Amino acid sequence: MDKKELARYLELAKELRLKIVDVMTWSGGAHIGGSLSIVEILVMLYFKYLNIDPRNPKWEDRDRFVLSKGHAAAGFIPALAMKGYFPEDELQSFNHFKSPFAMHPDTNKVIGCDASAGSLGHGLPMALGMGLGARYQKKGFKTVCLMGDGECCEGSVWEAAMAISNFKLTNVIPIVDRNHFMIDGDTEDVMALEPFADKWKAFGFEVLQINGNDIAQVDDALSRAWKMTVPTMILADTVKGKGVDFMEGNVKWHYAAADSELCQKSKDSIMKEYEEAVRCLQ
Ligand SMILES: Cc1ncc(C[n+]2csc(CCOP(=O)(O)OP(=O)(O)O)c2C)c(N)n1
Q1: Which of 67, 68, 69, 189 to mutate to test the pocket of ligand 1 (most atoms within 8 A of CB)?
Q2: Which of 58, 245, 252, 278 is the 20 to 30 Å CA partner of 258?
């Protein structure tokens, strides 16, 4: 990826982070930590890889995206707005009475959302069904499923993984946001996942292990996964709360509300990190 392209994605990631902080403020509270950790993945999917058309959201041949860690709707729904599925100013209603946008995404209400989620562990089974459906209908679309690492405590994740491997599905791409924390602590203290990559390998996957907050690495992994001829998953090492210095790696920010002062402080931190990243590019 050349510098110009990287600069564009860095800017989109910065914009998305600023919107996530706005949503946290307007909504009265949001799952901020796990929304900020997936920003680079969402940007690369929505602005480079997914073959989608915001003017035709139900297009049969579109690639599908399942946000299995549905609590990160505060990251996902602003990404849909930035892509043009609905006007960005509608985000101000997030989590308000009668708004289509709630703490978890609803496919019947959010334009561009392919699957409702919120109850963890259900996204990969749905993605498996979409992948089998595509094969049955002889369609070429991909289904990407983004899960949390804490979410992988759910047995249904592994049942779906076993089936994807069994059916040799290469049109379903699981991604795990390995931000090392779940709701109440470090994954290794609450329910150890390691050796995590080996578990996925034992289930028959080729594992692409990357820094999921590094745009170039996310780009490389997605481009490889898109072309793979064996079941492949992306294990994306990320930082919970990424971009807001006082939230980074601190489980206290799994869910939070913000007043205008906290909103501004968060945005200042995002801008500082972004300007530093741009300086490093030059
Ligand atoms: C089946 C189910 N159990 C519990 C919850 C409550 N819950 C919401 S977020 C969360 C933590 C999930 O951890 P992880 O997947 O690592 O999310 P992240 O750290 O990326 O936000 C839990 C337990 C839920 N949404 N669904």
Answers
A1: 69
A2: 278
pLDDT of residue 115: 98
CA dist 18 → 105, 219, 246 (Å): 20, 22, 15
Handedness of CA 241, 244, 248, 253 (dihedral sign): negative
**Domain 3-281: homologous superfamily in CATH:** Thiamin diphosphate (ThDP)-binding fold, Pyr/PP domains (3.40.50.970)
CB 196 within 8 A of CB 153: no
Q: Is the pLDDT of residue 282 over 90?
A: no
Classify residue 71 by its DSSP letter: G
Average pLDDT, the chain: 98
**What is the distance between the alpha carbons of residues 276 and 99, in angstroms, rounded to a whole number?**
36
Q: Which atom of ligand 1 has the smallest separation from the CA of 119? A: 26
The full set of domain ranges for the chain reads 3-281
Closest CA to ligand 1's atom 10: 183
